[in-house]
Amino acid sequence: MAQGKTEIKIARKPDEVWGVVGDFGALDKWLPGVETCRLEGDDRHLAMMGMEITETLIRKDDDARAITYGITAGVPVEHHEATITVNPDGDGSSVTWDVDVDDAMTEMMVGIYTQGLEALKAHLES
Fold first, then answer.
1. Which helix (H) or strand (E) holds 85?
2. Distance between CA 21 and CA 4 in Å, rounded?
3. Domain map of the chain by residue range?
């Protein structure tokens, strides 16, 4: 198992950023490549890049502005747990996306999440 992390600064208030990040069923609104996103209970079903991926909500803490989920189907990983956290940073926010995943997938996941945070920043700052 390996840990990876990526981080970005966004020129928006933490509550504004959390309003987007904390909406577990709205990933398709800001993450490029996600064609559809639908919720069934704590499961989020994503259609992207010709794949159907299921992610399960593990915890959501509105006070700490942190959401943790894991990939449970559609990607060949034995273990995946990711957390997105929004923190105040001056007049804006700092957003981190941490992942704990199979060693072979760490670099790929960090790359995807780095692009994801760049897309989040573009979405919120436009």
1. strand 80-89
2. 19
3. 2-125
Residue 112 identity:
I
Q: Which two tokens stand for residue 63?
A: 């006070």
How far is Cα 50 from Cα 52, in angstroms, rounded to an integer? Answer: 7
Report pTM. 0.95
Pairing of strands 34-40, 2-10: unpaired
Sheet (strand 66-73) strand order: 2-10, 92-101, 80-89, 66-73, 51-61, 43-48, 34-40
pLDDT tens column, 101-126: 998 999 999 999 999 999 999 999 99
Please state, in angstroms and rounded to a whole number, the distance separating the CA atoms of residues 67 and 34: 18
Question: Domain 2-125 belongs to what architecture?
Answer: 2-Layer Sandwich (3.30)
